[in-house]
Amino acid sequence: MTTVVLADDEALLRKAMAALLPLEGEITVLAEAQDGESAVHATLRHQPDVLVIDLEMPNVDGLGAVAEIRRTRPNQVILMLTRHARPGVLRKALKLGVQGFVSKSAEPAHIATVIAALHEGRRWIDSDVSALAVVDDCPLTDRELDVLRATRDGYSVADIATQLHLAEGTVRNYLSNAMQKTQTRTRHEAARYAREHDWL
């Protein structure tokens, strides 16, 4: 039996997976989490065989949660669900030790198969995820995307600097570059533009 913690902010999808995964394989769902912060708490508390986590969540996103979990549980097996797999995100996740990537639109039976494969020590990146990651028209650097992501989440320049361990002037430079590349007038417009183009 493979134990799992499910983390996804879309309640309907999360509840459906929690109900369907045990029907598709020898899987026990130990806990569910609705954001990155609760995903960290649930994983550290229940210590599942596999953490199934959405890339994009409020408060702390999937990558942030994985980084936090890795500090305490460096060998935690992780399957990341994603709609948009930019190369930068894929690289970051792989550096953090994420073993699997599956599209959020995948059937529960397929997700159950991947969970079993990861539990056996294998890696898995769905072909449609890797194909999306190869086709990248985003002109923004990873750091520019980081500051726009934090802007989208409502943080001030000072907060972003603290969060990303950067000087405020450096954050402003990244934001200025992002605004130029997106031809927008404010950092909030740039963040919205990047979100609409599926870069965040």
TrEMBL record:
Gene3D superfamilies: 3.40.50.2300, Winged helix-like DNA-binding domain superfamily/Winged helix DNA-binding domain. GO terms for molecular function: DNA binding. InterPro entries: CheY-like_superfamily, EvgA-like, Sig_transdc_resp-reg_C-effctor, Sig_transdc_resp-reg_receiver, Tscrpt_reg_LuxR_C, WH-like_DNA-bd_sf. Transmembrane segments: none annotated. Residues 133-198 form the HTH luxR-type domain. The modification 4-aspartylphosphate is found at residue 54. GO terms for biological process: phosphorelay signal transduction system; regulation of DNA-templated transcription. CDD domains: LuxR_C_like (cd06170). It comes from the Bacteria. Keywords: DNA-binding, Phosphoprotein. Residues 3-119 form the Response regulatory domain. Pfam families: GerE (PF00196), Response_reg (PF00072). This is DNA-binding response regulator. The lineage of its organism: Bacteria, Bacillati, Actinomycetota, Actinomycetes, Pseudonocardiales.
